[in-house]
Design brief:
This is Replication protein. The chain is mostly helical and 348 residues long. The protein is built from 15 helices and four strands. 19% of the residues are buried.
Length: 348
C-alpha cells in the first residue's frame, strides 16, 4: 500500500464582482470627474386635497434628525444587489447624511406623496400610481444614454433606503417591455407618515375629508375607475400579487391601521342592515313565489277563458254549472273552484 497524499481543494468562495469605477477613472484619462449629472428636485404638480397636506409636511423634514435613518446608517446600508449575498456585511456609515442623499430622499418622498392613491375604497391603501420611469422624470434624475437606455440609479438607491426604513413596501417583478427586474408596485406604509410627525388621527381626518370632497365633486366614480384601470394595466403586464400572501397581509395591516374603528363599526352596521334587508326581500320573493304557485289554476282559467277558442257563452255556462253544484266553493277555496272550471272546460 503506497502512502499517497491527496490534496482536497476547498470549494471556491463566491466573490462579488468589484466595481468598475477604477476602470472608468482610467479611461477618463485625466479629465475632470462629473460629480453628478442631475440634482434631485420635485418637479411635478401637487394635486389638491390630502396630497397637498402631506407634501407640505414632508417639505420641512430634516433627515439628519431622523432617528430611524441615523440607526440605519449606524448599522450599515444593504443595497438591493447585495441583499441575497451571504458574504456581504453592511459597513457602518457616518451619522450625518450627505446633502446629495438628503436631496434625493426629499425629492422621492414628495414625488411619492403627490402621486399616491388616497382613495379609502381601494383594495390596498397608499399605492403609488406611476411607474418608476415617470417617478424618476418627476424627480429630475432620469438619464437617457445614446443607445436609448434609461437609467435612474438615484431613484433606485433612495427607494432602497426608504424600504429599509420600512417607509415603503415594494413589489419587484420583471417588466415585459424592458425585460428588467425592477420595482413595479410601490405602497406607502404607516411609518412613512408617522416619521414626519403626521398622527393617525390626522390621516383619518384627511382621508374622511378627501372622500367627502370627492363625493361632492362627483369624482368618487372616476377615482374608482382610475384604480380599476391601474389594476387592469398591472394584470396585462403579468404583475400579480395574489400568491404573495405576506405582502397582502402587510398591505391589509396598513389599511386596518388607517381605517378608523368608528368607520369599521359603521361598515359592520351597514353590512348587517343590508343583510337584513336582503333576507326580508328574499322572504318576500318566496311568498310571492308561493302565491303565484297557488294562483296557477286561476291564471290558467283566465288564459283559457280569454282565448279565441273559448266562446263567451261557453264560459258563462261552465261558471253557472260549477256554482250550482258548489254554491260557496268560490268563497271558501278559490283554487279548487278554478280547478273544477278547468276540468269542466277540458283545459286542465
Amino acid at each position: 500500500m503506497t502512502n499517497q497524499v491527496i490534496h482536497l481543494r476547498a470549494a471556491p468562495v463566491p466573490q462579488y464582482r468589484p466595481s468598475r469605477r477604477g476602470e472608468a477613472n482610467r479611461l477618463r484619462k485625466g479629465q475632470s470627474k462629473t460629480h453628478r449629472n442631475y440634482q434631485p428636485a420635485f418637479t411635478g404638480s401637487t394635486p389638491r386635497g390630502m396630497a397637498a397636506k402631506v407634501v407640505a409636511r414632508l417639505k420641512s423634514h430634516d433627515w439628519n434628525r431622523n432617528p430611524e435613518l441615523v440607526s440605519l446608517r449606524r448599522r450599515g446600508y444593504t443595497p438591493w444587489t447585495r441583499l441575497f449575498d451571504s458574504s456581504f456585511t453592511p459597513k457602518p456609515m457616518r451619522v450625518s447624511t450627505r446633502q446629495e442623499s438628503r436631496e434625493a430622499l426629499t425629492a422621492l418622498s414628495l414625488t411619492l406623496a403627490a402621486n399616491c392613491d388616497y382613495n379609502p375604497d381601494s383594495d390596498y391603501m397608499f399605492e403609488v400610481m406611476l411607474p418608476v420611469e415617470a417617478l424618476a422624470r418627476r424627480m429630475g434624475v432620469l438619464h437617457r444614454y445614446e443607445n436609448g437606455r434609461l437609467a435612474y440609479d438615484v431613484l433606485l438607491h433612495a427607494l432602497r433606503v426608504q424600504e429599509e426604513l420600512d417607509y415603503l413596501v415594494i413589489h419587484r417583478d420583471h417588466d415585459t417591455d424592458s425585460g428588467q427586474y425592477k420595482p413595479m408596485r410601490i405602497f406607502l406604509t404607516e411609518k412613512f407618515f408617522t416619521s414626519r410627525g403626521i398622527t393617525v388621527d390626522e390621516i383619518r381626518q384627511w382621508l374622511h375629508k378627501y372622500r367627502q370632497w370627492a363625493i361632492a365633486q362627483g369624482l368618487a366614480e372616476s377615482l374608482s375607475l382610475r384604480y380599476e384601470h391601474h389594476l387592469l394595466k398591472m394584470a396585462r403586464m403579468g404583475i400579480d400579487i395574489d400568491r404573495h400572501h405576506s405582502l397582502k397581509n402587510r398591505l391589509r395591516k396598513i389599511k386596518r391601521w388607517v381605517v378608523s374603528p368608528e368607520l369599521r363599526e359603521e361598515k359592520r352596521r351597514v353590512t348587517q342592515d343590508l343583510g337584513a334587508q336582503i333576507d326580508a326581500l328574499d322572504q318576500k320573493m318566496r311568498r310571492v313565489g308561493k302565491s303565484s304557485e297557488n294562483d296557477r289554476h286561476w291564471k290558467a282559467w283566465v288564459r283559457w277563458s280569454t282565448s279565441p277558442d273559448a266562446p263567451l257563452y261557453r264560459v258563462r255556462e261552465i261558471e253557472r254549472a260549477v256554482e250550482h253544484e258548489h254554491p260557496d266553493l268560490k268563497r271558501l277555496d278559490k283554487e279548487k273552484y278554478y280547478r273544477l272550471l278547468l276540468e269542466k272546460a277540458g283545459a286542465h
